[in-house]
Amino acid sequence: MSRARVLHVVEALGLGGLEQVVLSLTRHASPDFPPEVLALSRGGPVQAAIEAAGVRVRRLALNDYYPGSVLRAARAVRAASPDVIHTHGHFAGVAGRLAARLAGVRALVHHLHTADSTLKPRHRRLERLLARGTRRIVCCSEAVARHARVDLGAPEDLAVVVRNGIDPPAAISREAARLLLPPELTEPIVGCVGGLWPHKGQAVLLEAWGALPPSLRRGSLLFAGDGSERAALEEQATRLGVADAVRFLGLRPDVRSFLPALALLVAPSIGREGLGLAVLEGMDAGLPVIASRTGGLPEVVEEGATGLLVPERDPAALQAAMAALLADEGRRLRMGDAGRRRVEREFRAEPMTRRIEAIYEAAIGVQRAA
Known about the structure:
The protein is an alpha/beta fold. The chain has helices at residues 17-27, 45-52, 67-80, 90-103, 121-131, 142-151, 174-178, 202-210, 230-240, 255-258, 277-284, 315-326, 329-346, 349-369, and strands spanning 6-10, 35-39, 57-59, 84-88, 108-112, 136-139, 159-161, 189-193, 220-224, 246-250, 264-267, 289-292, 307-310.
């Protein structure tokens, strides 16, 4: 087929999983599908990485999808002159698809990166309405596909599952990785990577950490990420008497470089988690993972093989799982090795990109047939 220009539409370009997927799609784009990116609200740390790959990023400063904002987005779409528009997330999905229609682009692909149970009824109505003109809704997990069909009313044949993929990490020794972390951290180090938001469940992890027997709590707990809950979590750590063993690193773009220094990764999410890019990165670093049994996490973590699954909001179950793995280094190593092999086999970025480009090709074919 002839070349088809792809415009990825996002809200912003921070350090979240959605933005990392967009980065992978631009880095691995084939010559048949040259990409650009339109950030509707703001840029962010990922913008530089996308531009370093030779991909143009256009930025607006929109805060809503009222008519005036949609008209501005439509002008940006016309300037990019894409053949396919690929929107990511709710905000960009609404504004981007409305703008695409005004700009005359009909090959629309929407990407759901999480199962967001917090969407209000009016937002769900918008998603149902916009689904009618969307060629495909890409879902990063079976859990998200169920959300699209059941909660958002997407037709059965519209939602297609393409699981996230990541690139292999840069080679780094455990010793070099350890130098990237504060020297006062004692081992074994347990890590939690992600924004400090209520649905990420870090408060549950802190409670579970505080309940560990002293013999197993001789190590450290670190949080990499930032968000609205940081102050509350710091206060909780002090209240539980574990503040000396807990460190909040803030935003760390070099997360993958220091992961090999950890003994264990925990993903205590509550209520929503599309697939868990941080979990994939932890497994790729050879870490066993303890994760909540929510969203797409059970599709990544194989119970008893690459890690352990626990009920969400259950600090006692999480404490028991951490105690079991912290007490058994051999089991941690076996799980970590199995997790690394699983990521290599099933969750790489290039195959993900090729599957999504096949969706673009089909969307363009439907448009031309129409």
